[in-house]
Amino acid sequence: MPTSSIGAIDIILRQILDIRPKTVLDVGIGLGKYGFLIRNYYEDVINNVYKKEDFKCDITGIEIYDGYKNPVWEWAYNRVLIVNAIEYFDKLDSNYKYDLILCCAVIEHFYKDDALKLIKKFIQHGNNIIVETTIGRFEQGSCYNNENEKHLSFFYPEDFRKFGGDIELTNDGSFVWFYPKLYNFWKIKFLENGRKKI
Known about the structure:
Number of domains: 1
Strand order of the largest sheet: 3-2-1-4-5-7-6
Order of helices and strands: HEHEHEHEHEHEEH
Number of strands: 7
Helix content: 25-40%
Distance between the termini: 27 Å
Protein backbone atom coordinates (compact mmCIF):
# COMPACT_ATOMS: atom_id res chain seq x y z
CA MET A 1 0.00 0.00 0.00
CA PRO A 2 1.21 3.57 -0.61
CA THR A 3 1.59 4.25 3.10
CA SER A 4 3.61 3.01 6.09
CA SER A 5 3.39 2.37 9.84
CA ILE A 6 1.34 4.92 11.77
CA GLY A 7 3.24 3.87 14.90
CA ALA A 8 6.55 5.01 13.41
CA ILE A 9 5.56 8.55 12.49
CA ASP A 10 6.45 10.30 15.75
CA ILE A 11 9.83 8.63 16.24
CA ILE A 12 10.82 9.26 12.60
CA LEU A 13 9.72 12.90 12.66
CA ARG A 14 11.57 13.59 15.89
CA GLN A 15 14.72 12.08 14.41
CA ILE A 16 14.36 14.26 11.32
CA LEU A 17 14.00 17.34 13.54
CA ASP A 18 17.23 16.35 15.32
CA ILE A 19 19.13 15.68 12.08
CA ARG A 20 17.95 18.91 10.42
CA PRO A 21 18.84 17.71 6.93
CA LYS A 22 19.47 20.03 4.01
CA THR A 23 19.09 17.19 1.49
CA VAL A 24 16.68 14.24 1.76
CA LEU A 25 16.08 11.23 -0.46
CA ASP A 26 12.67 9.67 0.20
CA VAL A 27 12.73 6.16 -1.28
CA GLY A 28 9.29 4.89 -2.30
CA ILE A 29 7.22 7.98 -1.53
CA GLY A 30 3.80 6.43 -2.13
CA LEU A 31 1.30 9.25 -1.61
CA GLY A 32 4.03 11.58 -0.28
CA LYS A 33 3.31 11.41 3.44
CA TYR A 34 6.86 12.02 4.68
CA GLY A 35 7.55 14.79 2.17
CA PHE A 36 4.42 16.51 3.47
CA LEU A 37 5.33 15.93 7.12
CA ILE A 38 8.89 17.21 6.63
CA ARG A 39 7.49 20.40 5.10
CA ASN A 40 4.81 20.70 7.78
CA TYR A 41 7.06 20.18 10.81
CA TYR A 42 10.70 20.70 9.82
CA GLU A 43 10.20 23.65 7.47
CA ASP A 44 7.49 25.31 9.56
CA VAL A 45 8.64 24.56 13.11
CA ILE A 46 12.44 24.66 12.63
CA ASN A 47 12.97 26.83 9.53
CA ASN A 48 9.90 29.07 10.09
CA VAL A 49 8.77 28.92 6.45
CA TYR A 50 5.68 27.45 4.80
CA LYS A 51 5.78 28.64 1.19
CA LYS A 52 7.36 26.31 -1.35
CA GLU A 53 9.63 29.05 -2.71
CA ASP A 54 11.11 29.53 0.79
CA PHE A 55 11.77 25.88 1.65
CA LYS A 56 15.35 25.29 2.81
CA CYS A 57 15.43 21.49 2.59
CA ASP A 58 15.86 19.87 -0.85
CA ILE A 59 13.74 16.70 -1.04
CA THR A 60 14.07 14.19 -3.84
CA GLY A 61 11.40 11.51 -4.01
CA ILE A 62 11.64 8.27 -5.93
CA GLU A 63 8.67 6.04 -6.64
CA ILE A 64 8.24 3.09 -8.98
CA TYR A 65 4.50 3.58 -9.57
CA ASP A 66 3.26 6.83 -11.12
CA GLY A 67 -0.34 5.89 -10.33
CA TYR A 68 0.17 7.37 -6.84
CA LYS A 69 0.92 10.84 -8.20
CA ASN A 70 -1.15 13.53 -6.47
CA PRO A 71 -0.86 17.26 -5.57
CA VAL A 72 1.28 16.49 -2.49
CA TRP A 73 4.12 15.33 -4.77
CA GLU A 74 4.37 18.73 -6.42
CA TRP A 75 4.09 20.77 -3.26
CA ALA A 76 6.29 18.71 -0.92
CA TYR A 77 9.08 17.49 -3.22
CA ASN A 78 11.63 19.40 -5.26
CA ARG A 79 11.54 16.53 -7.73
CA VAL A 80 9.96 13.08 -8.02
CA LEU A 81 11.54 10.46 -10.24
CA ILE A 82 9.65 7.40 -11.42
CA VAL A 83 12.34 4.76 -11.08
CA ASN A 84 13.25 1.51 -9.33
CA ALA A 85 15.38 2.32 -6.26
CA ILE A 86 18.17 -0.08 -7.27
CA GLU A 87 18.41 1.52 -10.71
CA TYR A 88 18.48 4.98 -9.11
CA PHE A 89 21.44 4.13 -6.90
CA ASP A 90 23.26 2.35 -9.73
CA LYS A 91 23.28 5.65 -11.65
CA LEU A 92 24.04 7.92 -8.68
CA ASP A 93 27.53 9.45 -8.47
CA SER A 94 29.49 7.11 -6.18
CA ASN A 95 30.65 10.05 -4.00
CA TYR A 96 27.28 11.77 -3.61
CA LYS A 97 25.83 11.84 -0.08
CA TYR A 98 22.39 12.87 1.13
CA ASP A 99 22.04 14.27 4.63
CA LEU A 100 19.17 11.81 5.09
CA ILE A 101 17.86 8.76 3.24
CA LEU A 102 14.35 7.80 4.30
CA CYS A 103 12.85 4.43 3.32
CA CYS A 104 9.53 3.55 4.92
CA ALA A 105 7.61 0.34 4.13
CA VAL A 106 9.63 -0.26 0.96
CA ILE A 107 12.42 -2.82 1.43
CA GLU A 108 9.97 -5.68 1.88
CA HIS A 109 8.97 -5.14 -1.76
CA PHE A 110 12.43 -6.34 -2.87
CA TYR A 111 13.84 -9.84 -2.73
CA LYS A 112 15.99 -10.07 0.38
CA ASP A 113 19.39 -10.12 -1.38
CA ASP A 114 18.44 -7.01 -3.35
CA ALA A 115 17.07 -5.32 -0.22
CA LEU A 116 20.33 -5.89 1.67
CA LYS A 117 22.31 -4.55 -1.31
CA LEU A 118 20.06 -1.51 -1.20
CA ILE A 119 20.85 -1.00 2.50
CA LYS A 120 24.56 -0.98 1.60
CA LYS A 121 23.83 1.67 -1.04
CA PHE A 122 22.02 3.70 1.59
CA ILE A 123 25.10 3.56 3.82
CA GLN A 124 27.32 4.61 0.90
CA HIS A 125 25.12 7.57 -0.03
CA GLY A 126 23.53 8.71 3.24
CA ASN A 127 24.97 10.51 6.24
CA ASN A 128 21.84 9.44 8.12
CA ILE A 129 19.43 6.64 7.25
CA ILE A 130 15.97 5.77 8.51
CA VAL A 131 14.38 2.48 7.39
CA GLU A 132 10.98 1.28 8.61
CA THR A 133 9.54 -2.16 7.91
CA THR A 134 7.21 -4.71 9.47
CA ILE A 135 8.61 -7.30 11.88
CA GLY A 136 8.73 -10.73 10.29
CA ARG A 137 6.30 -12.32 7.87
CA PHE A 138 3.59 -9.98 6.63
CA GLU A 139 1.88 -11.25 3.49
CA GLN A 140 0.72 -8.76 0.90
CA GLY A 141 -0.14 -9.22 -2.75
CA SER A 142 -0.54 -6.63 -5.46
CA CYS A 143 -3.06 -3.86 -4.85
CA TYR A 144 -4.26 -0.65 -6.52
CA ASN A 145 -3.32 -2.20 -9.89
CA ASN A 146 0.30 -2.12 -8.75
CA GLU A 147 2.24 -5.39 -8.95
CA ASN A 148 5.12 -3.72 -7.07
CA GLU A 149 3.03 -3.77 -3.89
CA LYS A 150 3.78 -7.48 -3.35
CA HIS A 151 5.88 -8.31 -0.31
CA LEU A 152 8.85 -10.32 -1.54
CA SER A 153 10.87 -10.57 1.68
CA PHE A 154 10.56 -10.34 5.44
CA PHE A 155 12.84 -8.76 8.03
CA TYR A 156 13.68 -8.92 11.69
CA PRO A 157 15.79 -6.48 13.71
CA GLU A 158 18.68 -9.01 13.58
CA ASP A 159 18.94 -8.42 9.81
CA PHE A 160 20.02 -4.85 10.52
CA ARG A 161 22.26 -5.35 13.55
CA LYS A 162 25.25 -6.28 11.37
CA PHE A 163 25.16 -2.78 9.86
CA GLY A 164 25.31 -1.03 13.24
CA GLY A 165 22.98 1.78 14.24
CA ASP A 166 19.97 1.66 16.56
CA ILE A 167 16.63 -0.14 16.32
CA GLU A 168 13.31 0.88 17.85
CA LEU A 169 10.08 -1.09 17.91
CA THR A 170 6.82 0.66 17.10
CA ASN A 171 3.49 -0.10 18.75
CA ASP A 172 1.99 -1.58 15.58
CA GLY A 173 4.26 -4.45 14.58
CA SER A 174 7.02 -2.57 12.78
CA PHE A 175 10.54 -1.53 13.61
CA VAL A 176 12.69 1.41 12.61
CA TRP A 177 16.42 1.24 11.94
CA PHE A 178 18.43 4.40 12.48
CA TYR A 179 21.94 4.69 11.07
CA PRO A 180 24.44 5.64 12.30
CA LYS A 181 22.43 6.12 15.50
CA LEU A 182 19.25 7.30 17.14
CA TYR A 183 20.20 10.70 18.46
CA ASN A 184 20.51 10.74 22.25
CA PHE A 185 18.13 13.60 23.01
CA TRP A 186 15.13 11.76 21.58
CA LYS A 187 16.35 8.34 22.74
CA ILE A 188 16.25 9.58 26.33
CA LYS A 189 12.79 11.10 25.78
CA PHE A 190 11.43 7.91 24.23
CA LEU A 191 12.83 5.68 26.96
CA GLU A 192 11.32 7.98 29.60
CA ASN A 193 7.97 7.57 27.84
CA GLY A 194 8.22 3.80 28.03
CA ARG A 195 9.25 2.99 24.46
CA LYS A 196 10.85 -0.39 23.99
CA LYS A 197 14.53 -0.23 23.02
CA ILE A 198 15.94 -3.50 21.67
